């Protein structure tokens, strides 16, 4: 992927865990993300602590405006999840630039694959190289409900 989407002026991406606004991330996900409705704050905090976290921040005020989380061994596999862009800044390409930054951050590690699940954002991920599973029949899941 030679054409890496740029983040809009006035925003920056950071993987510094100290910059992640855990309360804001929890609010976004537990109230507005279909996959995490009702997620407890303690559970979200544990997820943040055990993951590689990416935040997008407004450079003028430092406020976090987007988030993505990666579960990975940084060797063979990564799972991209909890990608969220604040409704107030959607439509500026922030989500696309964030996912591209995740992809480029992980690229040098030589991972074999990065997986994700989405209900409604296929177009965002497809333009960054993600594709449906070629052989979904090979994949299985153990689901605790």
Our Rg estimate from Cα atoms comes to 15 Å
Estimated structural class: alpha+beta
What is the number of beta strands?
5
Strand residue content: 15-25%
Q: Summarize the main sheet.
A: 5 strands, mixed
Order of helices and strands: EHHEEEHEH
What is the quaternary state of this protein? single chain
- So how many helices? 4
Description:
The chain is α+β, with helices and mostly antiparallel strands. 26% of the residues lie in helices and 22% in strands. A five-stranded mixed beta sheet has the order 1-2-3-4-5. The longest helix is centred in the last third of the chain and has 13 residues, at 94-106.
Element layout with pairings:
Layout: E1 11-14, H1 22-32, H2 41-49, E2 52-58, E3 64-72, E4 77-85, H3 94-106, E5 113-115, H4 122-126
Parallel strand pairs: 4-5
Antiparallel strand pairs: 1-2, 2-3, 3-4
Descriptive terms for the model:
22% strand, 145 residues, 5 strands, 4 helices, single chain, alpha+beta
In a few lines, what is going on in this structure?
The chain is an alpha+beta fold and 145 residues long. The chain contains four helices and five strands, in the order βααβββαβα.
